[in-house]
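Observation: inputs received (chain + zinc ion).
Thought: call the complex predictor directly.
Action: predict_structure
Action Input:
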Amino acid sequence: MARKKGKLPAAMRRGHDHGRCVEEAMTLAAELCARRGARLTELRRSVLEFVWQSHAPLGAYAILDMLSAEGRKPMPPTVYRALDFLLQQKLIHRIASLNAYIGCIDPGRPHSGQHLICRLCGTVAEVDEEAISGAIAASARDLQFSVERQTVEVTGICVNCVPD
Ligand SMILES: [Zn+2]
Ligand SMILES: [Zn+2]
Ligand SMILES: [Zn+2]
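Observation:
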């Protein structure tokens, strides 16, 4: 995720071509799953597409509602299993503080990024600052602590929501 300093991620660029974000995410997901021999079933695909409908995270029940609106009637465990699959394949991230899911912008590369969450519009931007992950890893090493999962979520107001 080679992001130039000062360049806004797509999530925070107002009026960006979001159709392209979705298209790229879906193409990449299909490629990665094919390469890994993982089955991107129709339901998993739909769930991923719903998660990608915007740059704001989506909860499991919102996804369930969307599937129901399409005439499908999956049970909640089915949706959770689809979300688990997408998490395992690292195609989505779980935003713990909101108990909701967001599409990963760089699923082909192992990373533990940080999430900036706008509390007004709900947009979440994923950033990956090596310095932050490095500092956490170093602190954990000092304490002989083995890290299993790392969640860095920052809440605030995005550039589009700052009052003039
Ligand atoms: Zn977008
Ligand atoms: Zn990611
Ligand atoms: Zn905002």
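Thought: report the result.
Final Answer: Strands lie at 92-95, 100-103, 114-118, 124-127, 153-156. The first strand starts at residue 92 and ends at 95.
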